[in-house]
């Protein structure tokens, strides 16, 4: 078995910091409105990929040539990706903060400081800064959301659409992106819950132009099993025929045989209006779909497993909805008439489950979609451009904003451009500490100015320290507009940040920095496994 190489003390810490700095210096270029685009070459010889998002850049970096430095680089890479997953934005901010904390703290440790006491001071100062950010937050209205989105995307039209979507649908909105080949920018809203399913027969289509079946004011019957015989559906048809609506949507795992023929004949003869659809997800997701449908419509889920076959359906088992639609690909239930309290309770259960899972978990994404579906909070953003490269950049920007804007709605907004972090410095300096712990507090106070400085540097402006002094002299809402180089009121200039993103960035930065700070041994395996995931 190959013997691993072990680096300790200065050999380990210096290599780790060099690797961390290489990634941090690259990603820092993407911070601010004058961010530089980074070209990522492809092995296939195709045109380089244009990247403006720190998290995407970090993900493209698989390894550094120097194995010891690579440990620090991968630490920075993981830090940025965690920030992306949790908040959608702030990756460059997090790595700039972490690099500054690490730089100042390492210098103090090299002079004889105690790393663990320093860490305590850093963590105490970070908590004070997070509290200060929370205090300065104010609610985000449509205008503020548009400003936050424009800070993220640099595109006023795209930002206005995104702000409208999240103002209309709320922080639990589920927004998908569809790419177009030609220049295009539009949004579409979808009422009700959308499910992966299919209309079981073209003979049930009511709108030939769209190839869809639509019925209004209908009963809903849910059967988590196979419907095949005429005996399965006769009780249902009799119950519906005796009501005033005479229309029903039957949703099952599978509908076939004489049962399907009977449903089609009743529909075509006009005796009843019938929509029959099958859910097509995998078994686990299909079970969830039935649960969500039951809550939305107030219907009872019948199934062979519960001893309630469809043949034993009762009038009380039926739910209702103002409209149901289905085609070859999906089923839509609009504004189901389930108990609002039951819907709220079910949604709260989903939110509670989301809180226990990692943000990048597949189940988390599924739960967020189900939550949006329950509340009718689904939209699609349609974007296009002249070239694939341009379209890719817009797509990146939109994805980043879609992740970040919900936090702005939940946690509020604050002055952007690094000003919010500058405003935290007095609260950090007020933290009472002594010795090495006190220096840890000062490390964070100094690091909080770095995002402002880096934005100014990326804009090609000189003397960031004097710009900071001028901004602080004029008040807590003042900062530097990197596009003009002028000190302005950030609210008036529309330069705002999501407080939720800022808090996550600071906490992620501190977590990564203290890990690097307290690492003094690196084990380099002879044949390490390459990880393509951050």
Protein described:
- The chain has 534 residues and is of the alpha+beta class.
- It has three domains: 245 residues, GroEL-like equatorial domain (GROEL, domain 1, Orthogonal Bundle), CATH 1.10.560; 67 residues, no CATH class; 146 residues, GroEL (3-Layer(bba) Sandwich).
- It is 51% helix and 19% strand.
- The protein contains 19 helices and 18 strands.
- A six-stranded mixed barrel has the order 6-9-8-7-11-12, surrounded by four helices. A three-stranded mixed beta sheet has the order 4-13-5. A two-stranded antiparallel sheet has the order 1-18.
- Helix 8 links the parallel strand 7 and strand 8.
- Helix 5 packs across helix 14.
- It is elongated, with a radius of gyration of 28 Å.
- It starts with a strand and ends in a 10-residue tail after the last strand.
- 45% of the residues are buried.
- The model has no long low-confidence stretch (mean pLDDT 88).
Describe the secondary structure blueprint for this structure.
Blueprint: E1 5-8, H1 9-27, E2 38-40, E3 49-51, H2 54-60, H3 67-87, H4 91-110, H5 115-136, H6 142-153, H7 156-169, E4 174-180, E5 184-190, E6 193-199, E7 213-227, H8 230-241, E8 247-255, H9 257-268, E9 273-279, H10 283-297, E10 301-302, E11 319-326, E12 330-334, H11 340-355, H12 362-374, E13 378-384, H13 388-411, E14 413-415, H14 419-429, H15 435-447, H16 450-458, H17 464-474, E15 478-481, E16 486-489, H18 490-493, E17 496-498, H19 499-517, E18 521-524
Parallel strand pairs: 4-13, 7-8, 7-10, 8-9
Antiparallel strand pairs: 1-18, 2-3, 5-13, 6-9, 6-12, 7-11, 11-12, 14-17, 15-16
Helix pairs in contact: 1-3, 1-4, 2-3, 3-4, 3-13, 3-19, 4-15, 4-19, 5-14, 5-15, 5-19, 6-7, 6-13, 7-13, 8-9, 11-12, 14-15
């Amino acid at each position: 078995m190959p013997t691993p190489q072990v680096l300790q003390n200065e050999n380990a810490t210096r290599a780790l910091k060099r690797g961390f700095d290489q990634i941090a210096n690259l990603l820092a270029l993407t911070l601010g409105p004058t961010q530089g685009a980074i070209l990522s070459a492809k092995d296939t010889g195709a045109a380089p990929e244009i990247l403006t998002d720190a998290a995407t850049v970090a993900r493209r970096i698989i390894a550094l040539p120097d194995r010891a430095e690579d440990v620090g680089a991968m630490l920075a890479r993981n830090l940025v990706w965690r920030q992306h997953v949790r908040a959608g934005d702030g990756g460059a901010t997090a790595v700039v903060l972490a690099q500054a904390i690490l730089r100042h703290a390492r210098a103090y440790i090299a002079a004889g400081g105690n790393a663990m006491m320093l860490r305590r001071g850093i963590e105490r100062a970070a908590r004070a800064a997070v509290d200060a950010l929370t205090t300065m937050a104010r609610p985000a209205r449509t205008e503020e959301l548009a400003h936050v989105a424009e800070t993220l995307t640099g595109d006023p039209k795209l930002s206005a659409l995104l702000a409208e979507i999240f103002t209309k649908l709320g922080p639990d909105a589920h927004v998908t992106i569809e790419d177009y080949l030609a220049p295009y920018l539009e949004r579409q809203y979808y009422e009700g819950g959308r499910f992966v399913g299919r209309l079981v027969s073209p003979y049930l289509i009511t709108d030939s132009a769209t190839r869809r079946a639509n019925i209004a004011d209908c009963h809903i019957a849910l059967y988590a099993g196979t419907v095949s015989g005429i005996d399965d559906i006769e009780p249902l048809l009799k119950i519906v025929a005796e009501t005033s609506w005479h229309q029903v949507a039957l949703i099952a795992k599978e509908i076939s045989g004489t049962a399907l023929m009977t449903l089609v004949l009743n529909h075509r003869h006009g005796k009843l209006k019938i929509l029959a659809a099958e859910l097509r997800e995998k078994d686990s997701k299909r079970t969830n779909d039935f649960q969500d449908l039951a809550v939305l419509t107030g219907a009872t889920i019948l199934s062979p497993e519960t001893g309630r076959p469809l043949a034993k359906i009762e009038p009380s088992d039926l739910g209702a909805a103002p409209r149901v639609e289905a085609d070859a690909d999906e089923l839509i239930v609009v504004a189901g008439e389930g108990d609002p309290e039951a819907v709220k309770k079910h949604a709260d259960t989903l939110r509670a489950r989301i809180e226990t899972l990692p943000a990048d978990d597949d189940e988390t994404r599924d739960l967020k979609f189900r939550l949006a579906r329950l509340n009718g909070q689904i939209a699609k953003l349609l974007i296009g451009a002249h070239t694939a490269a341009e379209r890719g950049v817009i797509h990146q920007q939109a994805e980043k904003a879609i992740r970040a804007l919900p936090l702005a709605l939940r946690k509020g907004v604050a002055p952007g451009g690094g000003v919010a972090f500058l405003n935290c410095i007095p609260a950090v300096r007020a933290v009472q500490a002594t010795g090495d712990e006190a220096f840890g507090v000062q490390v964070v106070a100094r690091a909080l100015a770095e995002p402002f400085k880096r934005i100014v540097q990326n804009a090609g402006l000189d003397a960031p320290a004097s710009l900071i002094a001028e901004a602080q002299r004029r008040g807590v809402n003042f900062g530097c507009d990197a596009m003009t180089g002028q000190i302005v009121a950030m609210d008036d200039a529309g330069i705002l940040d999501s407080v939720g993103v800022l808090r996550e960035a600071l906490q992620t930065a501190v977590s990564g920095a203290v890990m690097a700070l307290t690492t003094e041994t690196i084990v380099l395996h002879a044949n390490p496994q390459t990880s393509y995931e951050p």
